Amino acid sequence: MAESWDGNLHSGSHSDESYRDSLHVEPIYEAFLCPLTKEVMRNPVTIENGQTFEREAIEKWFRECRDSGRRPTCPLTQKELKSTDLNPSIALRNTIEEWTKRNEAVQLDKACRILSPGSPEVDVLQALNHIAHICQKSRSNKHVVRNAELIPMIAEMLKHGSRKVQIKALETLCIVAEGDDDNKDVIAAGDTIRTIVKFLSREHSQEREEAVSLLYELSKSELLCEKIGGVGGAILILVGMASSKSENISTVEKADKTLQNLEKCEKNVRQMAENGRLQPLLTLLLEGSADTQLSMASYLGELVLSNDVKVFVAQTAGSALVDVMKSGSKQAREAALKALNQISSYEASAKILIQAGILPPLVKDLFTVGINQLPMRLKEVSATVLTNIVSSGADFESIPLDQDHRTLVSEDIVHNLLHLISNTGPAIECKLLQVLVGLTSSSTTFMNIVAAIKSSGATISLVQFVEAPQRDVRMASIKLLHNISPDMGQELADAFRGTAGQLSSLINVIAENNGISEEQADAVGLLANLPERDSYLTRRLLDEGAFKIVVSKVVSIRQGISRGGRFVTPFLEGLVKVLSRLAYILEGEPEIIALAREYNLAALFTDLLQMNGLDNVQTVSAQALQNLSKQSRHLTRIPVVPEPGFCCTIFPCLGNPPVITGLCRVHHGFCSVKDSFCLLEGRAVEKLVACLDHANEKVIEAALSALCTLLDDGVDIEQGVSVLDDADGIKPILEILRENRTEMLKQQAVWAVERILRKEEIALEISGDQNVGTALVDAFRHGDYRTRQIAERALKHVDKLPNFSGIFPKIG
């Protein structure tokens, strides 16, 4: 004996010999062994001296002799040979083959008895080694293994308790399956594929590698592709392995090749797309049959894609899908539209679709009526895609829709959109309103849309959508109206005069208490942009209870009760501006004055001046305080001095007027912040002076205008100057005059300085400031008529002009 039972183990091993003996293997005869390889010969040949060798081994020996420059010799005798002819030893070969078959039959029979879950690990490993060895020797042996019903037994070893056995079983099954479809079918029977897939998630890389190698081999059979893909999670795991950076290269390549084989089944392609491997689906979409293309486009429309994938799909298949929109059947167009709906929902991919020419067929589908029109459900998809496209922020003025070079913002196109909005169902209404929202959100297309809305006379129709029962339609309409309100404030105010329903709907939105939403910010922003001096609209809002709601919302935000994310600032800005409407119609309106007192508006706006960082809130609050302060001289309670009595006529010493305390220095009456809106009593002067140092000119203008009400005709101007002086307000006003930042600020500052200089000690102090004099001279030379006149008077106060100068006639 010279070799173990499988031809691989070394002779002399006691354990191997005992295992061989236990298999009742026939002994290996010395004649069977090649003297060079010491292995059983497969193709024995005889040389001229009668010695027998394995053909491959002796040919190698002769080649080495020749390469070394020696004459050929016999490896055993070392004698030179006259010839290197080789004579096949057919009889010996047949004998060896018969011996091998008997030996293998015994070994396979023993393997059948050994392959069971309870067998020792070493025995099972040796049995699996033998099966693998004999299958590698010839394809016919694979048939023998199948006929011996060993394949299910090997598969059962995948559940063995030993990891080594499991790995060897995977390896053996791979060898058994290679190039034999019948064996693959046997392996795939039952639940074996599911068991193999489980190994893909194992911790040890060797298990994963053997499992993916086996699946790759099985996937070469087209009949098994669907079964492999049908195992839950199989494709997901394979996709992960194919893109893994941590797996070894061999495993990654096998996983990728397995997926390529699985692409033969459309169901698998869908699963791959679902798990981020889009290329197979896109390939079928571009190159498959018409039915396959339709199927892939339909499925693409159902997928939830990441943004990166949307860009990839747009680049790969965008043009093809647009072509289907132009010329495909209705069924194909529906599938393409749904796919485009998915892809277009990301800005970057939407821009790629625009370059692919999506806009012309999209708009055509929306506007076409008659026999060729799309069903309404598909027009809804078209409207959704158009909404996505518009949201990309592309330059729509430069994208022609037809040969007439009309664009999406051309007047007649916008008119058609407005007409379609008014004559379709809520779903399309909502999407087309969102299209207009997108176009009015862009500074480049805003004016085109506003002009088209004005020329179409559709303002009233758009306002009516504020009452829509569908929340998304209402939200879109409010957003659109808010967008256009800066340039269509009066038109919208006129439209809201028609019925009470729309205003009520807006107020109800503002009153909601589910946090602060974008819809609330848009609703109050819309109202804030309507003409603030429209007393009729203000009274309508008053009748609807709007101001009570607005005050409660402002107070709630100021106290930190209401909290919101990114919409809290625009919401508060809108609330404050709506509330400031009351300050514009106080004149001769006892009811409005009573309401302003009830809500203590002067104190509220004074408090809002402190909201640093919210420039619009500070500006509007200062403007409101200006309007409120103008009413203070009318609302202050002037004390009544009693008529002198009879005794006072006899005794004049008794006729001295009584001393009255607590009077306002500026208004000479009893003032309060709540009842007369007095800036002094409300401690607003210091806060307004602080705003004069603001970086925003609008805030400065509003604050200065409010402070100027202390210097108005009808109040004690000298005391007003003293109040400003006490609040350190004169210096910043002079600074504004010197800086000459805007024309409005220059005019305000010249007016205020002229009033301040009426107080002699102030004028005396300022007369030495050359910068003030220079600024006044500049205003005197370059200002408008009124400013020059006021500057002239100011220069007289500081003796820069003689008092008899009369360059400008005095005007009221």
From TrEMBL:
Q: Which UniProt keywords apply?
A: Transferase
- What is this protein called in UniProt? RING-type E3 ubiquitin transferase
Q: What processes in GO biological process is this protein linked to?
A: protein ubiquitination
An annotated Gene Ontology molecular function: ubiquitin protein ligase activity
One Pfam family, please name it.
Answer: U-box
Q: Where are the transmembrane segments?
A: none
Fetch the CDD domains from UniProt. RING-Ubox_PUB (cd16664)
Q: What is its EC number?
A: 2.3.2.27
